[in-house]
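Hi team,

Filling in the usual template for the complex we talked about on Friday. All components are listed, including any nucleic acid strands or ligand strings, so the model treats them as one assembly.

SUBMITTER: L.P.
PURPOSE: interface mapping
COMPONENTS: four
RESIDUES: 1370
SEQUENCES:
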Amino acid sequence: MIIEVLLDGDESPRRYRVARNNGDVCLRRLGDKGNGANDGELVCLDWRTPEPRVYSLLVGGKSYDVHIDENANDEEALELHLMSRVIRARASDARKRRVVKEDGGPDGPVQITAPMPGRVVKVLAAEGTAVTRGDGIIVLEAMKMENELKAPRDGIVASVLVEEGQGVEGGALLATIE
Amino acid sequence: MIIEVLLDGDESPRRYRVARNNGDVCLRRLGDKGNGANDGELVCLDWRTPEPRVYSLLVGGKSYDVHIDENANDEEALELHLMSRVIRARASDARKRRVVKEDGGPDGPVQITAPMPGRVVKVLAAEGTAVTRGDGIIVLEAMKMENELKAPRDGIVASVLVEEGQGVEGGALLATIE
Amino acid sequence: MAKIKRILVANRGEIAVRIIRACRDLGVEAVAVYSDADREALHVRYASRAYRLGPAPAAESYLRIDRLLEVAAESGADAVHPGYGFLAENGDFARAVIDAGLTFIGPSPDVMESAGDKNRARQIAVAAGAPTVPGSPQPVEDAATASEIAADLGYPVMLKAVAGGGGKGMRRVDDPADIESSLRSASSEANSAFGDGRVYIEKAIINPRHVEIQILCDEHGNRIHLGERECSLQRRHQKVVEESPSPILSDDLRERMGVAALAIATEAGYTNAGTVEFLLDEKHDFYFIEVNARLQVEHAVTEMVTGIDLVAAQIWVAEGNPLPWKQEDVRLRGAAIECRIYAEDPANGFSPCPGLVEGLRVPGGPGIRDDSALYEGYEVPIYYDPMISKLVAWGPDRQTALSRMRRALQEYKVVGIATTIPLFQRIIEDPAFIAGDFNTGYLDELLQDGALGPDHDRHAEIDDIAAIAAALHTFLREESRAFQIRGGATSAWKISGRNSSLRNFLP
Amino acid sequence: MAKIKRILVANRGEIAVRIIRACRDLGVEAVAVYSDADREALHVRYASRAYRLGPAPAAESYLRIDRLLEVAAESGADAVHPGYGFLAENGDFARAVIDAGLTFIGPSPDVMESAGDKNRARQIAVAAGAPTVPGSPQPVEDAATASEIAADLGYPVMLKAVAGGGGKGMRRVDDPADIESSLRSASSEANSAFGDGRVYIEKAIINPRHVEIQILCDEHGNRIHLGERECSLQRRHQKVVEESPSPILSDDLRERMGVAALAIATEAGYTNAGTVEFLLDEKHDFYFIEVNARLQVEHAVTEMVTGIDLVAAQIWVAEGNPLPWKQEDVRLRGAAIECRIYAEDPANGFSPCPGLVEGLRVPGGPGIRDDSALYEGYEVPIYYDPMISKLVAWGPDRQTALSRMRRALQEYKVVGIATTIPLFQRIIEDPAFIAGDFNTGYLDELLQDGALGPDHDRHAEIDDIAAIAAALHTFLREESRAFQIRGGATSAWKISGRNSSLRNFLP
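RESULT (copied from the run log):
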């Protein structure tokens, strides 16, 4: 299986060939072109899952405790906690990912949903607005605080489904970006 | 359902009629003869299970956190932890319990098994010995310590299946008492 | 007054648990109250008694004075501890408790109301001879007066809401030309936030630190202070990290601030525990800002360095007992730091993250104290303040306290909900923070600088391991999906892992 | 000597975690070692590096000096901390570590061996002018000599194995007629336990307390003591509960015992941390018994009252640094108590209970420290000592420390395996313990009296609730069995419970 991992802040993904080898999981980092050139060392991982979502890895004598959270709506979006750092990443089966792309996956429309029940305080970007990643779209008040919901990627605000002052359920679709 | 609860140290069991009542679980303590005379107040319990094996009970305004362990080999044998005390008890569906008894249940032969892997250091009671509850039957060494396995009730040692010095697996049958 | 036997804890969450623990330590019964969202909360389970107040919204449960008094009567409580937040500084509540013949564990209602009124509190401080921020003690009505006062004080000045708090209705004015428009907008904001548009003017203190003095006063006129807390690490005027002692206070300055705080307490006729808050400017001159007439979130750092249990002391004093300590008995040992852990996602604009705590590993070992309301299986409700735990580290010196906090943050695992732990991990590695070189603007600046962004301080080893772990995780998920292994993916993974107990580097 | 950068922790379990935490606090790298039974153990996960030693049995892993030295070399460690148990007092191991050019964090091998030899240790104590238990410093060979010595000392006397420890080869003789048979059986037991049948005679101290002095010595001749630990609560000669200070020591007696301990340390040329153990008789006369040339299980109570991190101090001293404290800098604040929590079932003859920790709730709040190796999902292995956690409570006085311990024990939930927590809950409510009125025989007597039996201190309210809970539990189990609800009984029960949020008393 070829797994692509894009660390948040990196320009291009890292590519790994991952396979079972007599029960072990072994992986090799591939060159950017995936043609076998520039391939890394084959590493058979010493790993355990002592607690849910926590991997204990021993690599080159070093011990790492890695806690991985998947985004509830997007299993490819990972948040990794290790060595007092948080690294966000996207990781996917490369073949599967290409299929998804053709279906209009990650590059297709993106939905902005309410992370919890609350009240829409402000709509920051009307339908038709061009937005860049990180721009605020909607301000939601919940748990006594205002939360700005941001554009996860560049695009155009295709629809806004709520009005200011409206109460919404958790998970409710608020807007889409194309 | 009639539930019988015998607290360790008590002479006779307490008997409760337990039933659903519009979703609630309600119970009433019965008189010793179970004829409805001397019955206690009907109590509909305010209970939750916030953690595995832990019940949060609110009774008469008081809050109790009760942790209940079942014996792995005998689900009717309970160990209850509450208010810094440990109470051991036997609790069973009265109807079911009678059936078991006829089959030769709790009053029938009792097996002494190894609670963990170890080595038999000493056999304290040979076959045919009359024993009373609490008498040592076998000394097992495990985790660097000697553990005396005791007779859970009065009876005769019907069989001893191990010899001194023998290594045994966890759960191995060591002796029976009839 | 008689010994208190049964305390109604009119609060929830970690502070209710904290107070219940003090009750247990003293052999006093604790009565918990709960809303429908909190039936399984730890404070209900740890209390001796527990009573339902009402539906989940605070206005229908924790803020209902009538229900609280009913429960106090029904449960036979003889005292009430308000915690902080909710009704903790509500004079009407304190008065109702006292009128019902119960002991209110806190200052008297009148003192509480004086402390809550900014103007009145300032007058008390002035009368006590404590330095206050230069400015008008009275609300200003028109722009002309405002201009005049501001010119007298010298720019920059601050406009502040009389009824205010939390930064609402607050404006800094640097240019005389802006005074009129700023006054208008501050007043309008204050009016919509508090229903009271009155605004007053103070000289702006440049790059201040927030340093506060913990005081403890009995009903016999004995008053002591327990040193200071450094609370300059604030996000949008909310304290985030606190420590004691302050990394910059000299013994002399501590003494002078303590004396000022006690003078204010004397002037106010203050009883029980309280906090006198000051701003400290770059020349280390200090200015009174307000009195918090209650226990504070950050009280634990004072407890760690003084060895004094503040909640137990509150109860002792509320019983009418004289303080068992004189000022010279209060000795600070070492240093303590607290991180307020919130169920918020710092990577996502600190949006609240209520939900199920699926996994929990609490840090331990030397110097670590965890005051939390969490357990594995607990569901953080959406209705209340999202603070879920206060993690405190003590060390014989500040450096050791920080090291232990760093270690504890790394050990702390809350699975299932996002928390602000990553924020603290970032702060505690920041050179300015480690050097003690910060003020109340520090944290907002740090966050603006992308301190939690993807490009912060990349580390090749961490990146490599993160990428490998992400690849492994994805491989295992896809593999288990392909195999459709019965019993759930996790257990299948665990079995797979066990086969690979030897680390191999194959060709 | 140079600063230590990377420490191999030659141990496992809670003490390995404790040492790794000290390393993190100091910014030193920690190298863990593990057997096949410990790959998922917390010490492996919290260390910077981790290396496999071998199969699960200690003889094939944690006791293999050759493998430990290989790992030290491979990992680039520059020092070794032995913890306690395993090789902690093995002179050959310490020597091998030093010969490999590494720093051994502990006393020198020679001093360690002197301390380990009862006769030699006794000679050192005598030379230092410390009081010792009256008796023969030499092994006795025949019954006639034994009779003579015993008559001189006066009965009762103790026979003790020269090589002994843990009560093996130990006999108390009350009657001169028994001396010959007791000598024979003690010698035979010692021979089978230690391969060394030599026995010596001491006067029996009646109803002694076990009180020990913590010492800390650098390589420059500076030596301090850190007060005492009261360790009289023992089950079969194993410490179970320890506290500092002792509830009965006067300042004067503490001073005299400390001086005696330091005199012994001086005579022995002792360096690093160590403990000098004494018996204290009913007249408060004290007698040297032995030196423990290592960190002790109960070190945390001393840390809590002195504020000194003993593991950090061990590393500091091992680097060749002078002690940063003089005797007058050591101040005891408050009181601390420790419970050694074992995976043993106190209701079943303390039989070990290894297995899976299915649920875990760790106590918190003021004054509580948990030094444990547990996490939810951890499997306590069968191969090693079953101690899984040391729970420590501190308070400004002994009474508060005990209250906090009582509270913490009630909060502590370990689901899936039996622990000795119920034993401590019993002890901490015992009037003699609360009064500080106990000696080394106290606990065995308490247990003989059926302290954990069903008839102890019945309480109608607890019995009622226990019976109701047992009935509820059984009803729900049978009901869920009848319904065959998908998704497991637990989740079905949880749903059922949620329907009953109102407490009703129906007719």
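MY TAKE: Residues 128 and 152 of chain B are 16 Å apart (CA to CA). The helical segments of chain B are 94-102.

Thanks, L.
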